[in-house]
Structures are given as C-alpha cells and as structure tokens.
Write a structure and sequence with these properties.
- The structure holds 3 protein chains of 3 kinds.
- Chain A is an all-alpha fold.
- Chain A has a domain at about 5-100.
- Helices cover about 65% and strands about 0% of the residues of chain A.
- The longest helix of chain A has about 30 residues, at about 35-65.
- Chain A is elongated and about 65 Å long.
- The mean pLDDT of chain A is about 75.
- Chain C is mainly alpha-helical.
- Chain C folds into 2 domains: about 1-50, no CATH class; about 60-160, Alpha-Beta Plaits.
- Chain C is built from 6 helices and 3 strands.
- Chain C has a 3-stranded antiparallel β-sheet.
- The chains are: A mainly alpha, B mainly alpha, C mainly alpha.
- Chains in contact: A-B, A-C.
- At the A-B interface, helix 1, helix 2 and helix 3 of A face helix 1, helix 2 and helix 3 of B.
C-alpha cells in the first residue's frame, strides 16, 4: 500500500473515532432533551463519514480498485439524519414542550405541531380506540 | 500504523456504544430513548465498516447499508407511533 | 417526445448515478441497467408527482453543496468543542423563529435539512402557513445573528436555485 494512502487512512480513522466518541459522550452529558439532539446528529455524522472515506481509501490502496458504495452510505446518512432529528424534535414538542415557551412565528399563526388542522399537523387529535372497539372497514362492497 | 489507528477507532466507537446504552437505560423520556437508539445504530454502522477493513472483506457494506435503512425506518416509526398512536393507518 | 421519455431529467440522472455507485463498476451491462432505470422509473412514477417544482438554476447547486459540506465540518468541530469544554451552566440554548421568503416545499425541505446539519442548530417545526421555521440552537448568546446567518447564507442561495 502506498505511503500517502496509509497516512490518509490513519488520519481519517483517528479523526472519525474522536468525533464519534464525542457525539455519544454529548448524548450522555448535555443537560436537557433538546440540546441532546444536537450532539449525535452532527458529531456522529462526520464520524461515520470519516470511517467510510477511510474504508474507501483503504480499499483503493489495497486492491487498486475504487469502491463507490461507501459514498452511497454516507449520502444516505446525510439525507436521513435531519429527518430523524426532526421527528425526534417533534416528539419532544408534542409530549413535553409548552407552547407558551416557544417564540411565535407571526401574528395569527402558530407552529404546525400545535395549531394546524389536518395532516400537516402530524399528530392525531383523537386518541386511538382500543382494538376491541375498533370497527373494521366494510370490505364486502 | 493503520492497525493501531483501526484499534483506536474501534475502541472509540465501542465506548460510544456503551455511552449510548447508558443513555438508553437512563432515559428519562421517550425522545431521549429514541435518540439513543438512533445513535446506537449509527455507531454500529461505523463498527461494521471498521470490521470490514479489519477482516479485509467488502461483505459488510451490504450489511451496513441494510442496517442504515432499518435504523432509519425504525426511528421514524417509533416517533410516528408516539405522535399518532399508530404506525400504519 | 423528449418530455415523454424524460419527465424528470434530474431524477433519471440521480437514479442512474446511484445505481452505478451501488454496483461500483462501469461494465456495459451495469451501464445498460442504469439507463433502463433512469428511463423507466420516472416514466412509471410520473403520475405520483403532480406539480413538482424544478430547480431553475442548476449552476448554483455545486456552490451550495460545497458551502454546506464546509459548514458541516466547521459545525462538527464547534459542537465537539462545546460538548467537551463548556460546562452545562454556561450553555445558553435558545429557540429562534426564522421567517421564510422561499415558498416552494422542496426548497423549504432542503433548507430544514441544511439547518439541522450545520452549526449548532436543529430545525424543529414549521409554521402552520409555512412562512416561518422553528430552530433550536445549542449555544446562542445572540439569537438574532443566527437568524441573519441562516437567511443570508442558505436561504438566499436556495432562492436563487429554485425561484
């Protein structure tokens, strides 16, 4: 394996290890639920990204062939981690956060989790019925 | 040199896995537990890739890709269950 | 003819490139399958994408991606330093409401994703009418500067791309 590849792989592995550990440590250390969301969504994304780049360079150095599947995993994680974070934040807003503690967006509107009607609210208004009382849809027609 | 760095990275991510497990047990709320699970999945993906480098095989890419897919879907469905009381309506 | 074969040229390109990345080879049969995917998947899924907006200025996309990647690296270092060295009592988390000028759903989605990935901010909710976005900051002594930063750095560029 060429020397530059060895240096690059080592560097990326060490950096990503540190960032991954800091992300998990932040999850444990930060004081309240909303600040905890910050640590894993950022530090861990770079941690895994670094590992994947290291793996790509290592594969290229060892075999001479460039494998591109790692890029795909990185891309997938970058696309999905904001969505997971948004969902977790929405769960927190829905279950715990008082509406009065948030800044108002503009006069006469509210945040979608609290005031919107219909599907854009993302929260069911009517509590689900217990399974025994649930009426099955009529499929005979 | 790479072997030492690899050991270091594996140690870091394993320790991270233990820390997230601690948060998962400690809670105290649903959102914390979901977040801990999500972070555990990401740490596990990193460990799988590192294992792939360690063993010199490329078979773990498919595994980690599937792990990323399943982890994302389970995070979203857990959140959706808490938000709407149902997953498939 | 061209519009019928390629209803979403961008989607076709993305599908083909993702397939080639996934099989990680450039042999003739994988290229053929990539082209088939790029042609047929958009054709069959076209009815499910009514009224989809298209980016009007594609030339601005690489610049935006580079800025976001750079900011992700900076964000990681900043958040790592805060996590490691700032005691919890000195942490000043804040909720910020950012009024939006962009209106297309795609642009707002990309903006929300960018906010979550970059310096110390997570996007949490959208206003009922979609004219503002709720952002949580990890450490913001000055919330107004965060708002200005998001508007100048990302929203202005997204507006160029989409509107």
């Amino acid at each position: 394996m060429p020397f530059w590849a060895e240096i690059t792989v080592t560097g990326f592995l060490v950096i990503s290890g540190v960032f991954g550990l800091v992300g998990s440590y932040g999850l444990l250390r930060l004081p309240d639920p909303m600040t905890r969301i910050h640590a894993p969504t950022k530090a861990t994304t770079l941690g895994v990204g670094g590992v994947l780049i290291a793996s790509m360079v290592y594969g290229f150095g060892a075999t001479g062939e460039l494998s591109t599947r790692e890029l795909l995993i990185t891309l997938f994680l970058f696309l999905t981690s904001p969505i997971s974070a948004l969902f977790i934040a929405k769960v927190h807003l829905h279950l715990r956060q008082k509406r009065e503690s948030l800044p108002e967006p503009e006069p006469d509107t509210g945040w979608a989790s609290y005031t919107a009607q219909g599907p854009s609210r993302g929260v069911r208004d009517i509590p689900p019925q217990p399974p025994s009382e649930r009426v099955l849809p009529d499929r005979s027609r | 040199m790479i072997a030492a760095a690899l050991t270091f990275a594996i140690a870091c991510f394993s320790l991270g896995l233990v820390l997230t497990l601690w948060r998962l047990i400690k809670g105290p709320r649903h959102s914390d537990r979901i977040l801990a699970l999500d972070t555990m999945v990401i740490n596990a993906i990193a460990l799988l890739i590192l294992l792939g480098i360690w063993l010199g095989t490329s078979i773990f890419f498919e595994v980690s890709l599937l792990f990323a897919l399943v982890g994302f879907v389970s995070t979203v469905s857990y959140c959706r269950f808490l938000l709407r009381g149902d997953i498939i309506e | 003819m061209r519009a019928r074969l390629f209803p979403h040229p961008l989607l076709s390109l993305v599908l083909a490139v993702v397939w080639l990345l996934l099989v990680s080879s450039l042999s003739p049969n994988s290229i053929l399958f990539a082209v088939l995917l790029g042609v047929f998947v958009p054709m069959f899924t076209q009815p499910y994408w009514p009224g989809m907006t298209r980016p009007t200025r594609l030339s601005a996309v690489p610049g935006y991606v580079l800025i976001v990647l750079y900011d992700i690296v900076i964000a990681n270092i900043q958040v790592a330093l805060i996590v490691l060295f700032k005691p919890s009592s000195k942490l000043q988390p804040a909720w910020v409401s950012v009024p939006l000028e962009i209106r297309t759903p795609e642009a707002i989605t990309i903006l929300a994703g960018t906010i979550t990935l970059t310096p110390g901010t997570v996007s949490c909710d959208l206003a009922e009418d979609g004219h503002a976005i709720l952002v949580h900051c990890l450490h913001a002594p000055d919330p107004d500067s965060v708002r200005e930063d998001i508007k100048n750095r990302y929203e202005r560029r997204l507006k160029e791309i989409f509107e």
